[in-house]
Amino acid sequence: MSQQSQQSQVNEQSTTTASPRSAARRRQRSTRVAVAVALLVLAAVLVAGGIVAGSGLLQAVTGVLAVVLGAAATKITHSELLQSRRDAARDRAQQAADYAALTAKRSAENAAFAADMKRRIADRQEAISQLEQALSAAQRQVAEQTRKLNAEARRADLAERRHGEVERQLDESETRAAEAIVLVAELEAELDTLRAELATWQQAAAKRASA
Predict the structure, then answer these.
(1) Which terms are listed as keywords in the entry (predicted)?
(2) Alpha-carbon distance 59 to 51, whole Å?
(3) N or C: which end of the chain has fewer CB within 10 A?
């Protein structure tokens, strides 16, 4: 699995996990911003009222209140900015932790898959080795039966008086030779099947390792 797909999965998981908390933080942020804006509006109204009233004392009082309200609004805005940065850092840390956990999980899965494929390939290679040995033995048996068949044929030509016995022995040799040939064909077919399975698994393991 590529790093981009892993990162997208981590983002989806982090988004799903953090959705209730993010919604709560957004509501708190909206409330604080609304309070700050209301304080600034109130400060502007007080200053405007003092100017309209024309009283120096009232203007001074409203000016002081406007400064206090503006400072409060600034404090709220600054606190909200700091909180937003802390929330963003917390989200990034959570995403990094989720990504590390997902990467470890994928690595473990890939290692388990590779180990299983190696075991299967080793088993099939052992089975192929055993079948190759059995095939070699069967081929030797075919050669031996063929040799015996030829010897029986020569003896049949040289001993016509034992025609009946020789024919019986010849038939038995032909039967054994035919059975050996059938066995060789079956072993060769099974060996081809196992070789095809081994090639398929090796290709799958190579694709998985390069992914």
Answers:
(1) Coiled coil, Membrane, Transmembrane, Transmembrane helix
(2) 6
(3) C
